[in-house]
Each structure stands twice: as structure tokens, then as C-alpha cells.
Amino acid sequence: SEADILLKVTGLHVRYGAATAVRGVDMHVRRGELVAVIGNNGAGKTSILRGISGLVRPSAGQVTFNGVETVSFAAHQKVRLGLAMIPEGRLIFADQTVEDNLILGAYIRWSRERPRIRTEFDEIFDLFPRLKERFHQRAGSLSGGEQQMLAIARGLLSRPALLMIDELSLGLAPKIVDQLMGLLRDLNAKGQTILLVEQLASHALAIAQRAYVVNHGHIELEGTSAELSGSPKVMETFLGKK
Ligand code: ATP
């Protein structure tokens, strides 16, 4: 039903000057789902996420989140509504410690809920034991996979209704990608709603319930992961690279 829909995107357009990167995207995410957005380099995946998160003001369309029309909201207002985005390249604060990076993730809650956030650190450490080991180290000294874990952990500390992740796999070794994908699947199994943008389509389809295939700034195909994994068109066009 409509009430199950956490995020609804209608007719989304994103432009950079004269260049249109997203041309009329419709999509939705239901509460509790893990939905993937796949497609080749430059297809417009990142721009869709920027439009949803408010990092770019869409030139047209609607982004309804939790029943609230948010297209004109600034990114920080959307964070308060429960929309967290982990950008491509992770953007952790390299000179700050792991601890400080995590505190920054919870900053909108820090003054009022500080004791509870400290207990949430323990939950984060259960999910990411490496972050506990490295709690007082500079974030910049972590490996790429650990930095991605930190970025995800920081996103989770804003208690997002929707966690959006752009290119989880970027620059990471295959073994680490598998590990992080498993983590996302576990998080989703515990109830976290996730929108994952990913170039490694087969990896994304392995953990998502549904997916959208983006090509030239629009949705070319959509369906369950099983449907898309079995589609010859998807295999040929998009899943050539593993
Ligand atoms: P990638 O995986 O490389 O990030 P993508 O599918 O996420 O690809 P986008 O980054 O959304 O694609 O890019 C879509 C189109 O918009 C591309 O043609 C890109 O060159 C263009 N584009 C992206 N960001 C900008 C920008 N800041 N200014 C101008 N053009 C941009």
C-alpha cells in the first residue's frame, strides 16, 4: 500500500548547466526494502542520489519522503527527516579520529541523546569490530574497506529511516566488497531500509530485493533482483563487467 512507501520519486530531472544528467526518473522504496540502482559509468546514478538527498536541487520532479514533499529542502533538512547519504569516495575526515568521525555522524542527536549514542557505539562495534580496534586512530590511516565501514557507521548514527549509499565498491578489493555487501544484507535483515547505487550490478542484485537499471539518465528497466538477474538484456547490456 501507499503507506509502505518511504521514498517516492516522480519525474526527477537533474541538470548541470546545459547538461541534463537525469531525465524523468520515477522510483520508490518501501519500508524495509533494500533497493539497488545499477547502470554503467555516467548513466546518472550519482545524480539521482544527489537529487534525492538535496545535494543538487532537481530542476523538476518530486521527492516525497515519509509523506513529506522535500524537493525544495536543503540536504541538512533531509538528514533531520531521516535521509542519510554516504557519498561516493566516502568523505570521511581523514585528520580526525574514528571516534570523532562517528560523533559527527550523530551530531544532530548529540546534545539530547548523548548517553544513548554511546550505547549505540557498542552496536556499531558489533557490526564493525575493526572500528573498535581503531577507535582512537586517525581515520586517514584506515584501509579503504575500513574507511567505507566508518562512512556506513557514521551514516547509521544519524538513525536514518533510509540509508543511501553511492558506489559501495569503489576502489575496494573484491573480498572487501563481498564483506561489505554481506554487512548491508545483515543490516537490511534487521530492518534498515537501504538504497544502494552500485556499478557492480551482479553484487548489488545478489543482496537487493528490487532494482532499477539506469541508462542515459532514465530508468530503462526495473524489477525484482531475480527478474533482472535472469534478463538476457540486463546480462548483455549491464552485467558484462562483474
Ligand atoms: P559514475 O558511476 O561515474 O558516478 P553515474 O551513473 O553515477 O556514474 P553521474 O555521476 O550521475 O553518473 O553522471 C551523469 C552525467 O552527468 C554524466 O554525463 C556526467 O558527466 C554528468 N555530470 C555529473 N556530475 C556533473 C557536474 N557536477 N557537472 C557537470 N556534469 C556532471
Would you kindly provide a written description of the structure presented here, covering whatever features stand out?
The chain is built from 10 helices and 10 strands. By secondary structure, it is of the alpha/beta class. The chain has a 6-stranded mixed β-sheet, with helices on both faces. The protein has a 4-stranded antiparallel β-sheet with strand order 2-1-4-5, covered by helices on one side. The protein is globular. The termini are far apart. The model has no long low-confidence stretch (mean pLDDT 90). Bound molecules: adenosine-5'-triphosphate. Residues 16, 19, 21, 39, 41-47, 199 line the site of adenosine-5'-triphosphate. Pfam families: ABC_tran.
Compile the SSE list and pairings:
Elements: E1 5-16, E2 19-30, E3 34-38, H1 45-53, E4 60-65, E5 68-69, H2 75-81, E6 83-86, H3 98-105, H4 110-127, H5 129-133, H6 144-156, E7 162-166, H7 174-189, E8 193-198, H8 201-207, E9 210-215, E10 218-224, H9 225-229, H10 232-237
Parallel strand pairs: 3-8, 3-9, 6-7, 7-8
Antiparallel strand pairs: 1-2, 1-4, 4-5, 9-10
Helix pairs in contact: 3-6
Bound molecules: adenosine-5'-triphosphate (ATP).
Adenosine-5'-triphosphate is lined by residues 16, 19, 21, 39, 41-47, 199.
